[in-house]
UniProtKB/TrEMBL annotation:
It comes from Planobispora longispora. This is N-acetyltransferase. Residues 7-171 form the N-acetyltransferase domain. GO terms for molecular function: acyltransferase activity, transferring groups other than amino-acyl groups. InterPro entries: Acyl_CoA_acyltransferase, GNAT_dom. PROSITE patterns: GNAT (PS51186).
Length: 175
């Protein structure tokens, strides 16, 4: 487990599937994410039970609060290749009453620290919708910089949105 100031990151358990299904079924939580097609709780449970264990190429961790151990979200380093030392970063806080309280910042910082210190990554990248300003603030706070923009790359509610590429190199993590 990885422990920050506000959160603990831990491996996901099959018992976490119901929370994930609930978050993925909430349009407000999924507002700026590619949510794919709807799935049932049974399908989500099966996916969790058949999920391969964490590995260098794909590390998925649940985000728990330190005060109470409540699962509030998840974070992931994926598409990682040791030959090039790069990974893609994902995160979301699914419990809306936990938004804006620093949990996402703390979890982002701890997951990136893990990537740089334990996995020996050189670069961590992410894509986010340009209008997702709260997420961009979190990413910049921990050391990500905006490197590029892909125009009209994400469609939501009948409108196209630009995506922003952000990266952080080893040695740039803040905090």
């Amino acid at each position: 487990m990885l422990t920050g100031k506000l959160v603990r990151l831990r491996a996901m358990e099959p018992s976490d599937a119901e929370a994930l299904w609930r978050w993925n079924s909430d349009p407000e939580v999924m507002r700026w994410m590619d949510d794919g097609y709807p799935s049932s709780l049974a399908q989500t449970l099966a996916r969790f039970e058949n999920r391969e264990r964490n590995s260098y190429g794909d590390v998925l961790l649940g985000i728990e609060t330190l005060d109470g151990g409540r699962l509030i979200g998840l974070t992931r380093l994926r598409d990682t290749e040791p030959e090039i030392g790069n990974a893609e970063f994902d995160i979301y806080i699914g419990e809306k009453d936990c938004w804006g309280k620093g949990y996402g910042t703390d979890a982002t910082r701890e997951m990136c620290r893990y990537g740089f210190d334990k996995m020996r990554l050189h670069s961590i990248a992410l894509w986010t919708v340009a209008e997702n300003t709260s997420a961009i603030r979190v990413y910049e706070k921990v050391g990500f910089t905006q490197d590029g923009r892909q125009r009209d790359a994400f469609r939501r509610d009948g409108k196209w949105h630009d995506m922003v590429l952000m990266t952080m190199l080893e040695g740039e993590l803040v905090g």
